[in-house]
Write a structure and sequence with these properties.
Number of helices of chain B: 11
Oligomer: heterodimer
Number of helices of chain A: 9
Mean pLDDT of chain B: 88
Radius of gyration of chain A: 17 Å
CATH architecture of chain B: Orthogonal Bundle
Number of domains of chain B: 1
Shape of chain A: globular
CATH class of chain A: Alpha Beta
Structural class of chain A: alpha/beta
Number of strands of chain B: 4
Order of helices and strands of chain B: EEHHHHEEHHHHHHH
Chain lengths: ~240, ~300
C-alpha cells in the first residue's frame, strides 16, 4: 500500500493537531492531508499558524497533541531528529543558511535520509548560480541564491516530502519564476510538497489544493478546479 | 653579557619561555571553554576543577595503580571527559531550556563541591608528580637553558590546539558543530542528533581541561586549588579573544602568556594584573573581543 506510485496514499495525515509555545496555544485542532506526489499550499495571513503547522510536523514547537502520520507512521511522540529520517525535508522561513559554512559545506551538511537524493551535479545543474559561488560564505549570497541553497540542501538528502516555508518572500519576480519552474520539476519527479505561501499568484498555477488558515485553524479547503468559484472566500481571508 | 632592550638575554628568553608555557595552558583551557560555550552557551565554571581533576587523575593513576605518565596522558582526559558526559547528561541537560545563567551557577557550584571534596581528602599542601624519565633534563641552547619537559608542554599544547582547530574548521563533524552552534533546532530538523552532539562536546571540552591538568602535574604541584587560580586568568583570556571564537581562544591564550612573561621582565610589579588591564582595554575598544563577531 505504500508503493511509490500509489497516488491515493497519504504521505502526510494530520488529525486534531494542537500546538503550544510555552503557555500560548497556537494551533487549534488542525486536520489536513497531503497525498503522494501532491503539491498543497497553506494560505493565510501572517500569524494565522501556517509556519507553526510546518514546525509542528518537524516537532520544533514546545508541545503538540493530536496525530501526525508521516508515511503511514504515527510521529506525535517521535524525537525531532528522527523525523527527517522518515524522508522529510524542511526549508525554514528564515532560510537557515549557516554563516560559518561556505555554500558547498551548507549543501553537504544535512545527513542523507534516503538513498535516491539528487547528486551534487544534478543540483548544480538545477541551480547554476550555486556552482559559481560554491566557495563563498553562505550568508554572502543574494536572497535568491540563499533560497535556492536552502532548497537544494534538502533535495540532496533524498527527502521525499518537502515542507517549504515562504520560499518566495522578498525575492525578485525573475527568481520567483525560477522557483516555480523548480517546483514543477520536483512535482514531476513525484515529490510530495506542502508549501506555506503568501504569494497566491505564485501558488495558484502549480498547486493541486489549498488550505486556508485563520487563527490557528483551517477554515477552507479549495481544490484547483474550485479556485474561480471560491474567489470570494479567498479575498475575504487573504485580504487581496 | 648580551642584553635585549636593557635586560640580560638569559632573563629575557627565560621569561619568554615561561610565558609561552603559561600561554600554552591558557590556550588549552580557553579552547575547551570556547568549544563548550559555542554549542551549549554555558560558561563552564567547573573548567578549573576539571583541569585539577585531570592532574589528580594522573597522580592517582601513578601512586595507586602504578600507571605511568604516558598512559595517563590518554586515560586521565578520558576518565574526566566521561565524568563531563555524565554531568551534561544528568545535570546540565535538565536546565538547558532555561536561562543559561543557571548553567553557570550549576557549574560554579559543582566546582566548589569538587574542590572542597579534594581539599578534604588531600589537604591543600599539594603533591609532587615526577617528570617522566624520557623528558627529564634540558638542553643548553647557548643563549638559555631549555628544560625538555617545558618544551614538551608547549609542543603538545600547540599540536592539540591545531588538531582541534582543524577538526572544527575542516571536517564534517566540525561542520555539524559549527552549524549546531548557529542554529541547533534546524540541525535537529535535518536529522542530526543534537542532544548527543551536545553531550559529547561537553565531554570533549572537559577532556581538554583534564589534558591540561596532566601536562601541568609535573611542573606545578598537584593541589585542589590549582584550577581555581588559573581559571580567573583563563576567563580574562576568553573575554579578550571573544566568546566562542576557537582561533581567538588559542591565539589569545598564547599571546597573553607571552605578554605576562615579558611584563615580568620589564615591570614585575604589574605581571599579575597585566592580562586584566588588557581585558579592560579590549572591552572598551572592541567589546566583542579581538576575534569575536558582532558587538
Amino acid at each position: 500500500m505504500t508503493s511509490a506510485t500509489d497516488k491515493s496514499f497519504e504521505d502526510l495525515r494530520i488529525s486534531d493537531l494542537h500546538s503550544f509555545y510555552g503557555e500560548s496555544h497556537i494551533l487549534h485542532g488542525i486536520d489536513l492531508n497531503v497525498k503522494r506526489g501532491e503539491l498543497v499550499t497553506l494560505l493565510g495571513r501572517n500569524g494565522s499558524g501556517r509556519s507553526t503547522t510546518l514546525k509542528s510536523i518537524m516537532n520544533m514547537v514546545g508541545k503538540r497533541t493530536g496525530s501526525i502520520m508521516i508515511n503511514g507512521e504515527e510521529t506525535i511522540n517521535t524525537l525531532p531528529h528522527h523525523i527527517a529520517r522518515l524522508g522529510v525535508g524542511f526549508c525554514p522561513e528564515e532560510r537557515g543558511i549557516f554563516a560559518s559554512l561556505n555554500v558547498e559545506e551548507n549543501l553537504l551538511l544535512p545527513p542523507t535520509v534516503r538513498s535516491d537524493g539528487m547528486s551534487l551535479d544534478e543540483i548544480y545543474d538545477m541551480f547554476p548560480n550555486l556552482l559559481e559561488r560554491r566557495k563563498s560564505v553562505g550568508t554572502r549570497l543574494s536572497g535568491g541564491e540563499q533560497q535556492m541553497l536552502a532548497m537544494a540542501r534538502i533535495l540532496r538528502t533524498g527527502a521525499r516530502i518537502l515542507l517549504l516555508d515562504e520560499i518566495t518572500e522578498g525575492l525578485a519576480p525573475v527568481i520567483v519564476q525560477k522557483l516555480a519552474e523548480v517546483l514543477e520539476k520536483l512535482k514531476s519527479k513525484g515529490l510530495t510538497i506542502l508549501l506555506v505561501e503568501q504569494n497566491f499568484r505564485f501558488a495558484a498555477p502549480i498547486a493541486d489544493r489549498h488550505y486556508l488558515m485563520e487563527h490557528g485553524q483551517i477554515v477552507e479547503e479549495i481544490r484547483k478546479d474550485e479556485l474561480e468559484s471560491k474567489q470570494e472566500i479567498l479575498n475575504t481571508y487573504l485580504g487581496v | 653579557m648580551t642584553m635585549i632592550f636593557g635586560v640580560p638575554a638569559a632573563a629575557f628568553y627565560g621569561q619568554l619561555l615561561l610565558g609561552l608555557i603559561n600561554g600554552a595552558f591558557y590556550a588549552l583551557l580557553s579552547l575547551g571553554l570556547a568549544v563548550i560555550f559555542g554549542l551549549l552557551k554555558i560558561i563552564n565554571f567547573s573548567h578549573g576543577a576539571q583541569y585539577m581533576l585531570g592532574a589528580f587523575a594522573a597522580y592517582l593513576l601513578l601512586s595507586v595503580l602504578g600507571i605511568n605518565y604516558w598512559a595517563a596522558l590518554f586515560l586521565a582526559p578520558l576518565i574526566v571527559g566521561l565524568l563531563g558526559v555524565l554531568i551534561e547528561r544528568y545535570l546540565l541537560r535538565r536546565i538547558a531550556h532555561i536561562d543559561h545563567i543557571y548553567g553557570l551557577l550549576l557549574t560554579f557550584g559543582l566546582a566548589l563541591v569538587i574542590q572542597g571534596t579534594f581539599t578534604n581528602w588531600f589537604g591543600v599542601s599539594g603533591s609532587r608528580y615526577p617528570v617522566p624519565e624520557l623528558l627529564q633534563g634540558g638542553i643548553n641552547l647557548g643563549f638559555m637553558f631549555l628544560p625538555i619537559y617545558r618544551a614538551w608542554i608547549v609542543v603538545v599544547a600547540l599540536v592539540v590546539c591545531f588538531g582541534v582547530w582543524f577538526m572544527i574548521e575542516k571536517t564534517k563533524l566540525g561542520g555539524y558543530l559549527r552549524a549546531g552552534t548557529e542554529n541547533s533546532a534546524l540541525m535537529q530538523a535535518f536529522g542530526v542528533n543534537v542532544p548527543l552532539l551536545v553531550t559529547l562536546t561537553y565531554g570533549f571540552g572537559v577532556g581538554l581541561a583534564a589534558l591540561g591538568g596532566v601536562l601541568a602535574a609535573p611542573v606545578y604541584s598537584v593541589s585542589p586549588d590549582m584550577g581555581s587560580n588559573l581559571l580567573i586568568v583563563v576567563f580574562a583570556v576568553v573575554v579578550i579573544g571573544g566568546m566562542g571564537s576557537i582561533v581567538g581562544a588559542i591565539l589569545t591564550g598564547l599571546l597573553m602568556g607571552i605578554v605576562e612573561g615579558l611584563t615580568k621582565v620589564y615591570y614585575p610589579e604589574a605581571s599579575n594584573v597585566v592580562i586584566f588591564l588588557v581585558m579592560i582595554i579590549v572591552l572598551l575598544v572592541r567589546p566583542a573581543g579581538l576575534f569575536g563577531k558582532g558587538a
